[in-house]
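Chain X:
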Amino acid sequence: MRKLKTVGIVLGIYAIALIMEVAMALNSPDYQGGMTIIVILGFLAFMAPKVGYRWFDCFLAAIPFYGLFFIFRIAYRTAFLPNRDWTERSPK
């Protein structure tokens, strides 16, 4: 069940990012792209401290192959957030 939640979270992130991308492209004739990565990094920056990473670790998602692995790792921990076995990052 946890793996299904993980896949659902990742697909949800990408669906929201693509909807934002299409909305920006339809509303602006000069739009060059880039909203997708902003939405994904924003979500990861928000969730990273809750699952044991620093907020700026979200930029690891921009690395080509490791990024996909990192997105799934954050989503996997997010799916198991109520029963976590890691320490939450304290804001410093």
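Chain Y:
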Amino acid sequence: MGRNAIDAIIAAREQNQGFTSFWEFCEKVDTRLMNKRVLESLIKAGALDSLGRRAQLMAVADRAMERAAQAQRDLQAGQHGLFAGLAALFESGSNGHKSNDDLPNTPDWDENERLQSEKEVLGFFVSGHPLDKYAEKLRNLNVVDTATASEMKPPPQQPRRRGEAPDPQSMIAIAGVIVGLKVGKSKRSGEMYAQAALEDTVGKIDIICFPKDYGRLCESLKIEVPVLIKGVLRADDDESAPKLSVQSIQPLEDIKIKLPQNVRIKVKLETASEAMLGSLKTMITAAPGPGRLMINLESRGEYCVMLEPEGLSVAADRGFIERAEQLLGQGAVQAFE
């Protein structure tokens, strides 16, 4: 967006003390300086969210610009005053509002489309991040963020044959969105390879897919939704920032968290209260899952009563364990197969 368009919007806002509708915004801003492309960029960036949903605004952008341009031409030609007032009166419904000012009842963009539109026009996300919806799932995966990975020292490089997997101990997993994909051809072998960046909520890290892996991963590299990438860090020298050599790519949506099949919860009777036990029951019933539930009621140095509540099972993911231990104390939950 150019400076002239920005100045025109600011001037119209100050002159009109804001805008009451999308139509008024378009009619009051000089359309010689704010064209349709600028208007669509404002919608995608969320700058006009106070005037309607983005899908609604985009659906009427053409008509709004045409109407605004005509209104501004009429104003310049002097076709306003009494006749313009009469025209506005006949255009109005019984409540005094223009019937064609209503925005269409268009379903709003989904989260992915909204965020991708922001990234398209601004270069970054504004109203959230594609990873936000997977925050709970990521807590249960052994992942590192891009900032942490960028500070890690790559392991010594070990030669491996085509199709041979790297040492699992050297692998790390990072979740994010693949951006800036570039495909090239190796000058040495003539085979295809790819470079890109993996972006998460704290930054980004360069990734590379070497020819020996490109054939099986080339389609996965085009995925636009959040993914989990496993690979090995490598650097050209000690001064270079590490890159992630890609070994596998999986959409986060497709990843299923493996939950423990058995969960033992220890309750110390000397510190237990009715309120605590009520909170524990609420927590358990709110997280049904595959884990067979066992509750140990312990009196230190005296006895332990072991219960297996009938009909109760639990999804003991990391979030559940943290909440339960916050209530009962560190080490109160044991999860096992």
